[in-house]
Amino acid sequence: MKLARFRTATAVSWGVLDVTASTVTPIRGPIAAWAPALIASGFTDLPLAGDPLPLADVRLVEPLEDTGKVLGTGANYWAHLERLGRTERPKHLASFIKPRTAVIGPEDEVRYPLLTEQLDYEVELLLVMGAPVTPLSDDAVPALLGYTVGNDVSARDMRNDHGPDLVSMKANDATTPIGPWITTVDEVGAPAGLDVVIRCSVNGELRQEDSTKNMLWDLPEILEFFRKRISLAPGDVIFTGTTCGVGMEDGRFLQAGDLVETEVVGVGVLRNTVGVRGARG
């Protein structure tokens, strides 16, 4: 099942996407009102709220509500670390939080902040929560709704004397595409041992390709890391790390007008164009 968030002339709603028919059928209410029951029912119980709408009459937006949290992990693929000169596996999972204002949707333009000259792409699989989880919960895995695609666009030259400045690097307004929809767990596979390909192309040239089976910390470990620290709500998303092939490795950073296509096979393809550096809007 593919769950999309879409905009009409009057509202933003959730819906069930039918790619073959090019339609989206509205779902009643915010994600917290229906996602827990959807998971509990084995992905069958969903309160539909009308007839299918042609995709041509709506615009898909990021599958994240305004109140949703965006969490992230880094340094999670050995191939990426090795190309950056690391010789030992990290002992601790790296993590960060992005503001909601950083997130954009499918086909939206990636803002190129004036503060950087090294804007970089990072394809990632995203976990999407569908039920509440707290540090007192036994396990976060059963609360997983599905997966989506993300591009953790980073300003690589944002460092100070103490190391990376993660706010300046990863929190810039309108720089983080997410989408184009959520594909549910039952369609893709359970997080334990998940083996799906992630890839990124820039202007049609393949730059990144790897499998989630090569993560240093797997998806249940990532969920467990955040469960112990942060309450998770339906609709919250978690970036799970990128692999080798980023611009930081060879100096081929993003330029204005570049078309970036990030894909998680079996989940979706996310397309965005890079804006003019320093442009307002």
Describe the structure.
The protein has 281 residues and is mainly β. It has a single domain (62-274), classed as Fumarylacetoacetate hydrolase, domain 2 (Alpha-Beta Complex), CATH 3.90.850.10. It is 14% helix and 35% strand. It contains six helices and 21 strands. The strands form four sheets. Strands 1, 2, 3, 4, 5, 6, 7, 8, 11, 12, 16 and 19 form a twelve-stranded mixed β-sheet that branches. It has a five-stranded mixed β-sheet with strand order 9-21-20-17-18, with no helix packed on it. It is globular and about 55 Å long. The model has no long low-confidence stretch (mean pLDDT 96).
Question: What's this, in brief?
Answer:
Helices cover 14% and strands 35% of the residues. The chain is globular, with a radius of gyration of 18 Å. The protein is built from six helices and 21 strands.
CATH architecture label: Alpha-Beta Complex
Order of helices and strands: EEEHEEEHEEEEEEEEEHEHEEHEHEE
Query: With helices defined by DSSP (H or I, 4 residues minimum), what is the helix count?
Result: 6
For the termini, the CA-CA separation is 35 Å
Tally of extended strands? 21
CATH class value: Alpha Beta
